[in-house]
Design a protein that fits this description.
The chain is built from 14 helices and twelve strands. With 329 residues, the chain is of the alpha/beta class. It has a six-stranded mixed sheet, with helices on both faces. It has a three-stranded mixed sheet with strand order 3-9-8, sandwiched between helices. Strand 8 (245-250) and strand 9 form a beta hairpin. Helix 1 packs parallel to helix 8 and helix 4 (94-122) packs antiparallel against helix 5 (129-142). It is flat and about 60 Å long. The structure holds guanosine-5'-triphosphate and magnesium ion (MG).
Amino acid sequence: MKIALLGKPGCGRSTLFRALAGSASADTSKPVTIDVPDPRLDFLTEIHKPEKKTHARVVFTDVPSPSLSPRNLALLRNAGVLAAVLDNYALGNLVEDFTELESELILADMAVCEKRLARLKKEGSGSSTEARLLKNLLAHMEKGAPLRTLSLDPGQLEILAPYALLSLKPLLVVSNRSAEPVTPEDGLRAEAELHGCRFLRMDAAFELELTEIDESERLEFLETMGYDSGGLAQFISAAHEALNLIVFFTVGKDEVRAWPLEKGATALDAAAAIHSDLARGFIRAVVAPWEAYRETPDRTALREKGMLFLEGKNYKVKDGDVVEIRFNV
Ligand SMILES: Nc1nc2c(ncn2[C@@H]2O[C@H](COP(=O)(O)OP(=O)(O)OP(=O)(O)O)[C@@H](O)[C@H]2O)c(=O)[nH]1
Ligand SMILES: [Mg+2]
């Protein structure tokens, strides 16, 4: 669940990182782990009043510039999502900066694909499935297009997984601006869409300032400034969404918890995420969508109304499901 922040010197990357970390003195050379805000989790916590509340988490890394330096490559390959921070508070060369970064990602991928293809040819596998796939990728990238805009099937993605190709990863495009952006964002937004990226706005310096204000005074401060709250929360949520995850919940007296799970995963996968014993001794999953608790905020009542569903191990878990695993070991 790693998200790498990249961008040119002075784009505000470290400012955004410190805002995420909640402190101006945060050490930007180490990753920071952040709770993913989730109103559904807040609601389930309110009605169950557990001793502990556990959010889904994401890990952010501030990747020093130049982003694609050899030292950084491992950091980038390791990340599930890349976020490009673009300066729109000082210079505002939005489209240029974005295009430059995207080209660097594509070039790094071309180098990997070419090297692998040469190797396959040398081994006499120049017409294997993998070689043909790599030629396809190279033809796509030669047109200046990132791999995330090429449609690939699960089998192809599996072949490519070991290479951790950078332009295949989801990329969030962040315009870092103050209240008044230097450059209008329409051009960047269109370009980001064309490249299969999600576009976001952010005022990193303001978000960092906000973290310095006592929580009790924050809302009042925002109101007097005429500002919207939750810019940071939106960014964290967008980053989490880009990881292609859903969230399921477990509820109880001791803990109410949000669990990230890959889209399409089953009840058995959910059980394994909680504990290997639950997967080993899996009997049934007892499932209700979290919304059911809005009308009937009580598990016993839900059961009596027939609103808890018994599901087998192949059940595809849905975003927002509250899950209880019945097991026997
Ligand atoms: N006004 C304004 N200043 C900002 C904003 N973001 C960053 N700055 C300032 O710009 C300078 C550089 O910001 P950093 O966040 O350290 O830049 P960086 O992207 O980490 O740059 P490097 O680490 O040098 O590559 C600092 O003095 C920040 O206070 C912003 O949104 N608005
Ligand atoms: Mg920095």
